[in-house]
Amino acid sequence: MIERDLAEKKHSLVRTRFPPEPNGYLHIGHAKSICLNFGVAKEYGGRTNMRFDDTNPVKEDEEYVRSILKDVRWLVGGSVDSADPWDGNTRYASDYFETFYEAAIHLIKKGKAYVEELTAEEIRQYRGTLTEPGKESPFRNRPVEESLDLFTRMRNGEFEDGKYVVRAKIDMASPNINMRDPTLYRIRKATHVMTGDKWCIYPMYDFAHCISDAVEGITHSLCTLEFEDHRPLYDWVLDELRDSGLIECLSKGVPPQQTEFSRLNLQYTVLSKRKLIQLVEGKHVHGWSDPRMPTISGIRRRGYTPEALRLFCERIGISKADNNIDMSVLEDCAREVLEDDAPRVFGVLDPVKLTITNWPEGKVEMFEVDSHPKRPELGIRQLPFSGSLYIEREDFNENPPKGYFRLTPGGDVRLRFAYVVTCNEVVKDKEGKVVELRCTYNPDTRAGATPEGMKKVKGIIHWVSQESAIPCEVRVYDRLFNAAAPGKEHEDGDFLKDLNPDSLKIMKGAFVEPSVKDCEAGKHFQFERMGYFVTDTEDSKPGSLVFNRVVTLRDNWASSSSSSSAPAADSKPQQQAQPPAAAAAAADLEDVRRLDIRVGKIVKAEKHPDADALYVESIDVGDETGPRTIVSGLAKHIPLEEMQDRLCIVLCNLKPAKMRGIVSEGMVLCGSDDSQGLVQLLEPPAGAAVGQRITFEGFGEPQPDEVLKSKAQQKVWPNVAPDLKLNAEGVATYKDAMAKCKEGTLSCKTLKSCPIG
């Protein structure tokens, strides 16, 4: 779309905008919009405006303005204190209040707007329903002069709140309810943060938003899908103002173009402002910047970097299809960035004392080790070693299971970078808790050496020296909810029932190596064998260090057991039980071969009884049990008559999911071209046999999992989807390998060079 506009000389410079309302804190869903708007402008050498849509004085606050600006600077610029990444000054819709007022007068004079005095409830009743047209207001044909006089008096403050509103005069029978004479202005006698008491009438968002875009010369107005039904109103307002002389771009015939993309739905959290307020006000979290919160301020304090968040937004991509993203995708992005950037240190979270009884009294030995195994430029660090150490309590087991290679009574273990020790005595307190391990060391095993004739020791654990260890507090954060869709499985929908009681564990008796003694707040480290950590930006300071766990070293939610505070270096997560084929696929197969993609035939399609955007299809995919029920979000893109009795391509082994009360047993694959606003079914060649599996050239025969059910399996489709596309010839491909069935390649009706999902 943008490339086409530039090629056709429609615009000489791409200009986007990020326009939040200053009535709350930004969350990770906003991060997607920020990255898209700033990213598109950067890609095409354009500019991005930072604008606050501050048209509702009742809900807005200067605190939110400061927080939002800080978040955007951090995410786009990479530093809270960096130069502003947007073009020019911060803008406010309130800067254009006079223009909005003049625009409303222009519409009234043209007979395209009128002053209404029905109550809000009466306006709702007159508007009609999705299946019934609305009725014209008795004031719809009020004389222009009378409406102009009332509007002037509204501005002058002569009437109380709710007495009058200004409505557009469009079409009360429109199938789009947003076009049934929407309200453009209302009376609200409230002090505005920016303009004080200068105004007592305020424009509605739909009216102010499009005009603000036009005034600022925005070329591409990128919005989430909930604004798709509002686009006709956006275009109507700008079209009716072309002859007003108020806005330069409209006079030139180049209005902004609104384009929609799907909003982000992230599993294991909630993004609803109402639910986030419940979490904060109910004290289930410690404020809006709690590191478990999905707010950008919480994510930043948790220790996620702006690079990780931008990588996440890049990976989930942009489309019109709903994207329900597993939290593991975000966590993997954090691991990928921190693996390269974070220096390594030793940290012992739950310490138990280890005494080396044959160590020379008073001796301290220094080990020089790399701060990062692949980044020599990060230098080396000094590790002091003595006869009194701390190790992780979980690195000792009196009754070890088979395959346990860490320390046991009478057993050996290697202390990383140092020596092999043997446990000779276990000391306990009167409650039976282990308080000390008395060991001997072998001086010939220094720094990984294995003397001739000695059996190689398999277990390696980390440690800190008691004399030099730095005490600290470690906050072990985990996902805030235990359920992927909080509240979904409860009849009352209470999402609070799915709160994870182990989302925060505070380890006050932890120790870290002395190299981090004076580190500043916001400094990242990998605690070897433990995870990625950061010094807390609010509570940590030299002499009183507080570390937050950002993320574990691997995805422990993919295992059947919950994550521990000290994963073992020599053990692997215990996987959930899987069918043999699935287990083999998980170990050996490319993800694309684990998908069960088949030729299907739509036997019947009908509208979902409870959702206007959804179809319910009965699709034959060759199952012996008969056709499957599949729910698809295609109602706004493909006419119902075109969904009958036709071949399609179906992803068959997704975990069944309930969509507005109906269980969907698969996903119909489609091509989606946002630039044209088109979504089309992906189809096999004519005559393709129903039920046959789709293959990809060069990838071998599919060996699909039975159902992509476990946490690990549910990542298979998100891993494949970004590389599933229609090429320039319109052929479906995965990483440029053509998708095929026996009869030939797959394609959409007309689409080319666009994603499949």
From TrEMBL:
Does the record's keyword annotation contain Ligase? yes
Q: Which residues form the TRNA-binding domain?
A: 591-695
Q: What is its EC number?
A: 6.1.1.18
Pfam families (alphabetical):
tRNA-synt_1c (PF00749), tRNA-synt_1c_C (PF03950), tRNA-synt_1c_C2 (PF20974), tRNA_bind (PF01588)
Sorted alphabetically, which InterPro entries does this protein's record hold? Answer: aa-tRNA-synth_I_CS, Gln-tRNA-synth, Gln/Glu-tRNA_Ligase, Gln_tRNA_ligase_bac, Glu/Gln-tRNA-synth, Glu/Gln-tRNA-synth_Ib_cat-dom, Glu/Gln-tRNA-synth_Ib_codon-bd, NA-bd_OB-fold
Where are the annotated coiled coils located? none
Q: Where is this region: Disordered?
A: 561-585
Q: Does the keyword Aminoacyl-tRNA synthetase apply?
A: yes
GO biological process, alphabetically ordered = glutaminyl-tRNA aminoacylation
Q: Which reaction does it catalyse?
A: tRNA(Gln) + L-glutamine + ATP = L-glutaminyl-tRNA(Gln) + AMP + diphosphate
Q: Which Gene Ontology CC terms are recorded?
A: cytosol
Query: Which keywords label this protein?
Result: Aminoacyl-tRNA synthetase, ATP-binding, Cytoplasm, Ligase, Nucleotide-binding, Protein biosynthesis, RNA-binding, tRNA-binding
Which compartment or compartments is the protein found in? Cytoplasm
Q: Name one GO molecular function term.
A: ATP binding
Q: NCBIfam families under this entry? A: glnS (TIGR00440), PRK14703.1 (NF011291)
Entries under PANTHER family matching the protein = GLUTAMINE--TRNA LIGASE (PTHR43097:SF4), GLUTAMINE-TRNA LIGASE (PTHR43097)
**Protein name as annotated:** glutamine--tRNA ligase
Query: Which species is listed as the source?
Result: Guillardia theta (strain CCMP2712)
